[in-house]
Please model this.
Amino acid sequence: MLPVLPGVGTFGIISGVAMVGSGMTPFAAMAMSLATYAGTAQLAALQLHAAGAPLAVIFLAALVLNLRFALYSLSMAPHFRSATTPRKWLYSYLLSDNGYAHFITRYASHPDEAGKVGYYLGACTGIWTVWQASTALGVALGAGIPPAWRLEFTVTLTFFALGISVIRDKAMAIAAATAAVTAILAIGLPYRLGLILAAGAGIAAGMLAERWTR
Model:
């Protein structure tokens, strides 16, 4: 897991700084990090909260962003079928993108190999520890920076960087451009509905562009 930990730590620091920069107390920021433990969903919820979105919209956005973990869990379920319910709750809490990728890469081709529980817990506990420690460092750094610096904008920059990094072809570029333009045009809609409209428009434009390309 060592190669992925620097990226996890960097993302955690950004998350901690952004939470404090948006007005959360250090205690609330760490409580959110420990209870939620979902970096992308945390930043999305934080951005929507700073924009004044209703709680229902924040909850829905976080739920949609975290739906991938349900798919991860389904593919891992056969490996932990004999585990007790409390252990399954622990495994689900520790589940992360990197932890899942490492586990499923190892055991999908060797399903009967021993040591699954130890491997999974070792990988995911390492990621959890680095995430929480780096978030705490970000919270500490953010608490000492003047509010006038508007550090919550780091959330927007982070999502912008993540979005740009996944554009691989013309269809994805068209989807991103359509979503961006729609979001700007719909910025005046109540309850931040422009974000949902932009996501739908981007998906539709990307699908049409991919079909035309084929």
Notes: The CA atoms of residues 167 and 173 lie 6 Å apart. The first helix runs from residue 5 to 21. Residues 2-149 form one domain.
